[in-house]
Amino acid sequence: MRSKGVRLYGAYDIRLEEFGLPDIREDEILVRVMSDSICMSTYKLLVQGKAHRRCPQDVDVHPIIIGHEFAGDIVKVGKRWLGEFSPGEKFAQQPALNYQGSLASPGYSYPTFGGACTYCIIPPEVMELGCLLHYGGGSYFEASLGEPISCVVGGYHGNYHTSLHSRAHIMGVKEGGSLLILGGCGPMGLEAIEYPLALEKKPAMIVVTDLSEERIARARRLIPESLAADRGVRLVYVNPSQCADEFAELMALSGGRGYDDVFVYNAIRSLAELGDRLLGSDGCMNLFSGPTDKDFSASINLYNCHYASTHIIGTTGGTTDDLRESLRLAAEGKIRPAVMVTHVGGMDSIVETTKNLPHLPGGKKLAYTQFDMPLTAIEDFREKGRTDPLFARLADCCDAHGGLWNSEAENILFRHFHVPTFS
Hints:
423 residues, 19 strands, 29% helix
């Protein structure tokens, strides 16, 4: 059958094109992709091409489909998986496969398996690993965003602390502790603020920094200090550019003891070094943002590492259990994936959006792959609606949901572009 999608041929070379898909084997599943949120990791793949660890060396001959934060419908099930999966059901998927030690992953490595397309084929290893999930949610976009949220969840589960009386590692951020998120008002950072508020074992304080007053204002509107207070957490937003001494003011907020947990949400040397300096005794710093420079390094205080038991980790991606937790919390209304989304577009917007991702303002860019539509900021819907009834309806719908993207708005698009959906 024919599919249409965005494929990578090498560094800085992605193309929107039609291509053929082979008939599925008895151990494969054919799916229709409905939504794909665009990740900064895909931009890193675009920049590096064959130099990326997950990119095949013959990509110029056998291009791969980009996009790994996707969801959709199962169309056809190979004989091996009949009874476990059924045509017509929705799916979510975990792209971090780690199959038999391989780095291969959808959106990076497969010619017929990725999210920026109309149809693709899910290979057997995905089902063997339990990475293809049944999804009964009301929207496709929340299933797409389950993957980036699972990365945030994985970061929280990856941090650890120690006991003075044993060598045991106590996994997770410290209950009742102090938590610092450096560069935390971007799309991933917003979920990093919201997620711990849903935990049973919460930190007592969350401090979030960002250099943009605009991003801080949006974060404060979506996740106000009062919301955190209602859940027993002190939440503080800080713009370092307004601090006379950033280190001193952040340290003072910790009561002078330093922070139990620090997340670095931008791979900047000075930010990593600041996070290390702000660690308290037994503090754990998580370099969450992945560097593009393979020689990325920073100066770390090894005296504190020895005498204050500070430790540094890095987490990338989430596990299937992290994804299940993300989808469950979203279904229960305890987290809101929509806080990440600021722009919505169609298939024809993916190439230019991916190429320019670091320079585009706002948060997550969400693409629907079954139709064409220019990438449009949610805050611009009302203005576009003056001349386009579609955007007028979308503006009304998003206003009714606090300015956030939502399942009703998604369905408005599907009806407008005559995209059939499964109930």
